[in-house]
Amino acid sequence: MADLTGRPALTRVARYVAGGGSIASVGFLIHDLGRPERFLHMLRVFKPTSPLSVGTYILSPFSAAAGATAAVELLGWFPRLKRFGGIVAGLFGGPMATYTAVLLTNTAVPSWHDFHTKLPFVFAGSAMAAGEGCAWCSRRSRRRARRGRWRWPVRRSSWLWCTRWRTTRASSPSRTTRAGPGS
């Protein structure tokens, strides 16, 4: 969005943060899988019923586009590729921000599973807040980012309030503050 609205300093910071974060995410996923060839095996078959498989297919194009865009921004080559890579990364940005919530709620633990309709929105709000926070990394973009500084606490507070007060009986033990017997 910053590129399409003509904010070059904010665009540069956003590209570096997205590129670095996405490449780190691929590295963390490969580390979690244990062996690098498992990541390649996950790319062979697409299983819509597996959140990890869908997440891999979201992470791969996002990290490729964001990483390439950050590299092109750093090196100063191919200015048209920067905008195209930013658009591709933007298309996969929303699913990238929320698929971890889908992974967490796809479980047999009732207190996690009960939030399967709400937790992706909490993760999306948190991702937007983190993106706005990263905009403060650039001096030139601070002034423009300051305009939106009231938005992220409102987003985060509203979604946390919704998830706290719309809880079910299964998640109520996680909110108690008294210690159990024997402690």
Automatic annotation (TrEMBL):
Membrane topology: Multi-pass membrane protein
InterPro entries for the chain: NrfD-like (IPR005614)
Transmembrane segments: 16-34, 54-75, 87-109, 121-138
Matching Pfam families: NrfD (PF03916)
Highest taxon of the lineage: Bacteria
Subcellular location: Cell membrane
Keyword terms: Cell membrane, Membrane, Transmembrane, Transmembrane helix
Record family assignment: Belongs to the NrfD family.
Protein name, entry field: NrfD/PsrC family molybdoenzyme membrane anchor subunit
Gene: nrfD
